[in-house]
Amino acid sequence: MRHAVAITGIGVISPFGTGPEALVRALAARRSAIRELTVLDAARYRWRWAAEISDFDPAAFLGARGLRYFDRTALLLSTAARLAVQAGQGVLEAYDGTEVGLAAGATYGSTDSIVRFDRDVLTLGPRLVSPMQFPNMVMNAPAGRAAILCALRGPNATIGNGEASGIDALEFARMLLLTGQAKAMLAGGVHALTDEVYHACERRHFLFDGPGTWSEACGVPGPFDRARAGAVLGEAAALLVLEDVEAAVARDATIHGLLSGYGTAFAAGRPDDIEVRQEAAVHAMTAALAEAEISSSEVSAVFAQANGTRAGDRIEAQALSEVFGSAMSHTPLVAIKASVGECLEASGVLQVIAALGALTTGELPPAPRTPELDPAWAFDVVSDGPRSFQGDHCLVNAVSRDGVASSVVISRWPGAAADQALTAHSASRTGRGASC
Amino acid sequence: MKPNRRAVVVTGLGVLSPIGCGKDSFWEALLAGASGAAEIRSIDTAGFRSRRGCEIKEPIPVSNDDGMVMGRASRFAVRAAEMAIEDAKLNLADVGVRRLGVSVGTTGGEIRVLEKIDSLRHGGSEADVSGDLYAAQPCSMISASVARRFGCGGPNLLISTACAAGNYALGYASDIIRRGGADVMLAGGADPFSRVTHAGFCRLGAVTPDRCQPFDKNRKGILVGEGAGIVVLESEEHARSRGARTYARVLGYGLSCDAFDPGSLDPSGQGVVVAMRRALKVAGVALDEVGYICAHGTGTPLNDRVETLAVKEVFGPHASSVPMSSIKSMLGHTMGAASAIEAIACVLAIRDGVLPPTINYETPDPECDLDYIPNTPRRRDVDIALNNAFAFGGNNSCLVLGRDR
């Protein structure tokens, strides 16, 4: 754990509301936020369900002024940044503003803005496009805007690694801390539901395409289920406050957990070459464990990528079997995407927040529905109800469709008494969603 | 010098630019003061305020064995990487598959693919758009395409920090090697000419109607360009063990954010000052050791004034004795590729002891009163070069390159 950094704040907006408490409680209660789409024009799609933030009121977090040209991705990320700063125990006061930065995983966020702008070029002509919209064409616009709102003048980066973006942004931030570029970093990922990306996911056969209507979909075959039939998209922005462990201790900040290891690999074959992708996932997990200086037997729970896609779950399941061997039958496996949806760039960091919740509350969250596991995998998927948890290390996986596999180890901070940060406060906003 | 765990060296250069493809023709053209500006051909410019830009005129040969659709940005990155690997005389089979990574910066990503999808839908219907096009559209496909083509199973990063992205990608790749995460990284930037980008900059009034004249009193703006720059970075021990020729070292980089405006530089230059100082500090370099600054130098009235101001603040009395040129005067603004291509110019300047000029420089501006190497290249031995890049989103990145000893 020589390279561990401290997690001293969590800023998150998810379909269950704002703050980690709301997310952790909803997961513990086996709730699912998947419901009929309202933030997009559902009539355009064949599959019309998502885990959306339907009551999102940006002004409540960011003030009413100056938001006119923010796209949804920028609004969500800015909200998470504001929440992270608030939860960061005075991080902006503790350090000079030029030493506090932001690393955001955001791959798809500008797609809608680009297409709208391009459509204006084609229909109105290039002289009538909005110059105020143009800065949204770049993928780093959300991170740039969040930096303005929160006065984050340190390193600012946007990572476009698909579903691995959020986890890879955590590592980018950790690197900057370890190399002295920054004293503290907000890091994580964001995905906002937008028409272009929803549509592209549908066209790429990524979305759930099993039989059934919503009432049945309440039991969307979950991760690792033999009948799984694709992902259900969600939206969220999730940022952690990361800083040097000694510095956090020196300023008396409560440490919620440690980012103690990271591993990554690329599947340099065709995207449909399952074996190559599986090898990459094995390497990512193994390297993360090695850097955290723990063996697979010391992993107390796995917070899986598990998004319910046929190929994705299979890749991860087989990789887990290879890394853990028969121990997978008694290593608790947590899968949160039947609850919060596949939030793409934000997903990995939501899994990290769920892991931090488990370290804090002493409970692992159950999947909303008990899966009928593929018989090839003798896994212990947590599903019947919250499971008591005393472990010290959680493994979190992200595997992108485009070939990146990245994993992190989240460890209990051994130097502190049980930290109540996640449970002390009541949920600030009630989340929504059906109880399945 | 600050003890770095592992030194990182540059051993191969690959460049596609509007003034030449391949490091030799690129460097020759740079020193000859060539201009890449011409009438734009790759998009329909009817109705645009300006019809001039800096495009790559030659075809980009990229084999496509697996039949996947590859956008222009990915093709650029793959071809530039191929050149760099060849230049480094690197046998990829000798590098462990997980020890070989990719880090690419971009502004628009596969924006051309998105524009194609939009054109097809606009002129016809959704049915005209193949699923393969959607699969080729995410920006992550650029670094993925490079990794697939060359079997890079190590760290893979797509960094989308707009026009500062090339330096980010190079700097972060050097961090990965320094901390032992890889032995070899293919790192740089790629961006294709884009309708959206050209339209946006035209609408902002940031595009010059004729020439790009950085630091000149009469400068009128940028020319949108396209290109790619990819280098082979290696740990020193890896390069030495295979007897590789080394061009230069990556000494460090510095990042900062203006946190001022999403589309405009902070006129105080404070964000830029932080990035430059941080880069020099991380690299362990003293001000009087810097022999060349490769400017961001876009040619807009604001950028060049602010950059000059910031260099003066950082370098103090040394500012006037550090030559600083903008090769965007020749290439136009190649967006996310720009700082990667400029890093290659720095490397070649260190190798040859010649600094590329700022062309189209005629009238001094009292607010831009440094040594911009006007119009003709200059012979000068350089041990350390500073490469500046500033971007939308207030993202600033400065990279320090040094002679390999």
Question: How are the SSEs ordered, and which strands pair?
Answer:
The complex is a heterodimer of chains A (436) and B (405).
Chain A lengths: L4 E10 L2 E2 L1 H9 L2 E2 L1 E3 L12 E3 L6 H5 L9 H16 L3 H4 L5 E6 L5 H13 L17 H10 L5 E4 L5 H14 L5 E8 L3 H9 L10 H4 L18 E9 H6 L6 E10 L7 H18 L9 E3 L6 H15 L7 E3 L2 H4 L6 H15 L1 E2 L15 E2 L5 E2 L4 E7 L4 E8 L9 H4 L9 E2 L1
Parallel strand pairs in A: 6-7, 6-8, 11-12, 11-16, 12-14
Antiparallel strand pairs in A: 1-2, 1-9, 1-10, 3-18, 4-5, 8-9, 10-17, 13-15, 16-17
Chain B lengths: L7 E10 L2 E2 L1 H9 L6 E2 L12 E2 L18 H16 L12 E6 L5 H13 L7 H6 L3 H11 L5 E4 L5 H14 L5 E8 L3 H9 L23 E9 H6 L6 E10 L12 H14 L6 E5 L6 H15 L8 E2 L2 H4 L6 H15 L1 E2 L22 E2 L4 E7 L4 E8 L3
Helix pairs in contact in B: 2-5, 6-12, 9-10
Descriptive report:
The complex is a heterodimer of chains A (436) and B (405). Helices cover 33% and strands 20% of the residues of chain A. Chain A is of the alpha/beta class. In chain A, the strands form four sheets. In chain A, strands 1, 2, 6, 7, 8, 9, 10, 11, 12, 14, 16 and 17 form a twelve-stranded mixed sheet that branches. In chain A, strands 3-18 form a two-stranded antiparallel ribbon. In chain A, a hairpin with a 2-residue loop joins strand 1 (5-14) and strand 2. The two termini of chain A are 39 Å apart. Chain B starts with 7 loop residues before the first strand and ends with a strand. Chain B has helices at 23-31, 72-87, 111-123, 131-136, 140-150, 165-178, 195-203, 236-241, 270-283, 301-315, 328-331, 338-352, and strands spanning 8-17, 20-21, 38-39, 52-53, 100-105, 156-159, 184-191, 227-235, 248-257, 290-294, 324-325, 354-355, 378-379, 384-390, 395-402. In chain B, strands 1, 2, 5, 6, 7, 8, 9, 10, 11, 14 and 15 form an eleven-stranded mixed sheet that branches. With 405 residues, chain B is an alpha/beta fold. Chain B is globular, with a radius of gyration of 20 Å. Chains A and B meet through helix 5, helix 6, strand 7, helix 7 and strand 10 of A and helix 3, helix 4, helix 5, strand 6 and helix 6 of B.
